[in-house]
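Saturday, quiet lab. Running sequence design on the structure tokens for the scaffold JK sent over.
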């Protein structure tokens, strides 16, 4: 009797367990691992020659082992939060509600204004553990199964910054007092010791990007505010922001091991806009000889830095992890000097496509993906992870990236929508709105 009772409850428990697991995720036996690396303005024009010269070995490895192509961006807009939101939802801006840097009500867009679920939310609901770091308009950090680090983490110091938050010091302690910078809310305390303030970044790190004599280094160290008239300030704060995102991403990969990790880097965009002219000086008004000497390779160096970050992420992730590298658009030399203010690299004068590199178990080796679009990122990631694609998504699964075996054993599944009801959140204003606007103005994104 007693024996029978035990095994009965044991069996019942097992049934409950099986149903419990099946109810929260679709293919628990096949949970795959994915790292998404978002590189703003990542462009083949710079990557291809570096790969050919053996200077981006990690990119080279993924390109050779996986599928890649020129990622077609939107024609009508080149605005980062719009593009990244559409990439991470698979939906056009009229559906996402994120249509510019600034909302209809006149303040910087944020995650409360997004009308549909993004990849992090969908994956969380489907039982994946995620870590997302630094994507545009991700404040307030949404509730996910895992960790969300919003873009508020990366603010540099911009002209006319708010004195109330003490941005003028080189210290990031103000982050500890902000709400919803991360999810869980307390995660900011955990990662705060990892964050380097600009004066903690060693000279060698900057010397990998540009040359400094002692006097130049002295001046560089004293830069406390970002302004586009001072190209070195842009370089300084781009590196600090990307370095901190990388440190948080590595921490997540090593300590928390989310199944899907996604991290965003903005530096290639900012550095590309302002340092392109040193890379191709023959097309521009002659720069001072010393500047040419110091910055000729800065943009290329920055891409090599990204390659190093990729290498670290590969090291920190398991061998069965797939990597998906994407950019929102590419960049090219401005067609007429002075046409885009002080910028020498641009993506506003015509459509400049970005990059996609996808490599891992189940992905075709050495495959060229024909005509992928930024809207295809989310459907493709969902498919890879064994989840259905929403019929209301505007992108499609990039099936040609996958091996025949994978395609055969994994038919594309669809559901009507992940947004059964509209995602209606009360619109909030971030405590750093003024800072965000200053950032956009300092770089020249808005006037
Ligand atoms: Zn840009």
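Result came back. Writing it out in full:
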């Amino acid at each position: 009797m007693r024996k029978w009772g035990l095994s009965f409850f044991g069996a019942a428990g097992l049934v409950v367990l099986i149903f419990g697991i099946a109810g929260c995720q679709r293919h628990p036996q096949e949970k795959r691992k994915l790292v998404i690396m978002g590189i703003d303005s990542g462009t083949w024009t710079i990557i291809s020659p570096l790969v050919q010269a053996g200077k981006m070995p990690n990119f080279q490895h993924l390109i050779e082992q996986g599928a890649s192509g020129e990622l077609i961006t939107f024609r009508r807009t080149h605005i980062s939060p719009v593009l990244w939101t559409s990439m991470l939802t698979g939906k056009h801006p009229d559906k996402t509600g994120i249509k510019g840097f600034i909302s209809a009500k006149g303040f910087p867009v944020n995650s409360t204004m997004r009308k549909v679920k993004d990849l992090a939310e969908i994956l969380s609901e489907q039982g994946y553990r995620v870590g997302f770091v630094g994507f545009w308009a991700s404040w307030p950090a949404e509730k996910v199964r895992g960790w969300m680090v919003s873009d508020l983490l990366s603010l540099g110091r911009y002209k006319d910054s708010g004195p109330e938050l003490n941005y003028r010091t080189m210290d990031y302690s103000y982050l500890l007092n902000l709400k919803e910078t991360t999810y869980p809310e307390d995660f900011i305390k955990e990662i705060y010791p990892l964050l380097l303030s600009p004066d903690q970044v060693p000279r060698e790190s900057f010397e990998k990007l540009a040359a400094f004599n002692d006097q130049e280094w002295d001046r560089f160290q004293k830069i406390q505010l970002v302004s586009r008239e001072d190209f070195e300030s842009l370089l300084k704060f781009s590196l600090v922001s990307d370095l901190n995102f990388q440190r948080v991403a590595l921490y997540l990969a090593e300590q928390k091991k989310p199944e899907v990790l996604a991290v965003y880097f903005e530096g290639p965009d900012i550095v590309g806009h302002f340092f392109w002219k040193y890379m191709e000086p023959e097309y521009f008004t002659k720069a001072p000889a010393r500047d040419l000497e110091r910055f000729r390779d800065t943009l290329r160096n920055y891409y090599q830095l990204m390659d190093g970050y990729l290498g670290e992420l590969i090291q920190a992730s398991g061998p069965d992890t797939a990597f998906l590298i994407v950019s929102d658009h590419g960049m090219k030399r401005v067609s007429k000097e002075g046409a885009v203010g002080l910028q020498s690299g641009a993506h506003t004068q015509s459509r400049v496509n970005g990059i996609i590199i996808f490599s891992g178990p189940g992905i075709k080796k050495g495959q060229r993906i024909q005509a992928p679009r930024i809207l295809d990122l989310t459907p493709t990631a969902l498919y890879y992870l064994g989840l259905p694609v929403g019929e209301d998504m505007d992108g499609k699964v990039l099936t040609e990236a996958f091996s025949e075996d994978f395609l055969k054993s994994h038919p594309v599944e669809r559901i009507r929508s992940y947004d059964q009801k509209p995602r209606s959140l009360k619109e909030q204003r971030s405590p750093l709105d003024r800072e965000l606007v200053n950032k956009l103005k300092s770089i020249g994104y808005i006037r």
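Notes for JK: The pocket of zinc ion is lined by residues 41, 269, 273, 347 (CB under 6 Å). The longest strand covers residues 33-39. Ask whether to fix the surface positions before the next round.
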